[in-house]
């Protein structure tokens, strides 16, 4: 888990902007959608007490579907109104405010494609009801989908980032297979194209348990379809660097239905994964029942992050870190001196080890270099160590592999006793 945990903490690294592209016209900004967006901003944004019925009356031809106020009190910080438009398209209006003062006004258009309303264009207005920027989702042939960042005119393209890509061609690289369970992976980047574990027909292994399709491209959509959080690629870049001979099996975790985690574990095992790298978790133990049942007794080691809430998870649990399974190895982040990193979780019983994972070099979903910190980045460092040990001794069971790793832990000279169960590993690269 990185520094900014969401409800399910795997999606913690929100990196701004995709690779810059020359300014131009957004190819698929639908005129009718833009007309509705502008009309909604013009008529609804100035209303200080927005309601669903007011929105319906202000936009002739629309029908109120639902209205949400969060929190549901006299001074909500967010008011969300969803409207049905002629032709079964939908419009979602969101007013974000503080103390009744407007901070941001968003209007999103979803076009009906026969299977439901699919998000297509969004307008973003400021506290003065001026549209400052927009976003548009477009699809192209071959399985590509893009998110276009737009200027305030909702037509001029600022830059584009990838939302989904087809699998790249290649061959299985061999080596220990490590399953990465996260927000997905930008597997079209050169760093990963030749690191993907593949089946006998050359098809990469992995799956998107969020959208239930074969392409687990990096993007946690818990903030909405126009605001993907990219986390998995950065984590995977650490694993790829520190275990250069390992083969990756990327999975996009099932935020909409965490009961699918059981099937994810079984699929990973069938694909030959001996290690699960899992920089994610939640406070709800029910999210992880299927995962625990599927992992129990299996010869597979799950390397799990402790989280970044600055608390003792023995007393205030995070799952699956607090699970009692023997084949889970829980790790948290320390600085280079062996001090628990600020904000990192601890637990004398629940957290096994800590290791340096602050200001770790990463490659993000754009292919850009940077640094990141937190227990999310302790996970790939420890999983890479496990993969290197397993490559040297393929016959190691999960239990023996875990014991080998824990034997490397020593008491920290700068940390109080009881922060973690086994101690810290000063340098996971010192094999």
Number of domains: 2
CATH class of the largest domain: Alpha Beta
- Classify the fold: give the CATH topology of the largest domain: Rossmann fold
* Strand segment tally: 19
The number of helical elements comes to 8
Uncertain ranges: 3-23, 25-29
Return Rg in Å.
23 Å
Molecular structure report:
With 431 residues, the chain is of the alpha/beta class. It folds into two domains: 128 residues, no CATH class; 248 residues, Peptidase S8/S53 domain (Rossmann fold, 3-Layer(aba) Sandwich), CATH 3.40.50.200. The chain is 19% helix and 28% strand. It is built from eight helices and 19 strands. A nine-stranded antiparallel beta sheet has the order 1-9-8-7-6-5-4-3-2, with helices on one face. Strands 11-12-10-13-14-15-16-19 form an eight-stranded parallel beta sheet, with helices on both faces. A two-stranded antiparallel ribbon has the order 17-18. Helix 4 runs parallel beside helix 7 and helix 7 packs across helix 8. The protein is globular, with a radius of gyration of 23 Å. The two termini are 25 Å apart. The N terminus is likely disordered.
Helices and strands, with pairings:
Layout (H helix, E strand, L loop, with lengths): L19 E6 L5 H14 L7 H7 L4 E8 L7 E7 L5 E9 L2 E12 L4 E9 L5 E9 L5 E7 L4 E9 L12 E6 L7 H4 L13 E2 L23 H11 L4 E6 L8 H10 L4 E4 L10 H7 L5 E5 L22 E7 L18 E4 L3 E4 L5 E4 L2 H18 L5 H9 L16 E2 L7
Parallel strand pairs: 10-12, 10-13, 11-12, 13-14, 14-15, 15-16, 16-19
Antiparallel strand pairs: 1-9, 2-3, 3-4, 4-5, 5-6, 6-7, 7-8, 8-9, 17-18
Helix pairs in contact: 4-7, 5-6, 7-8
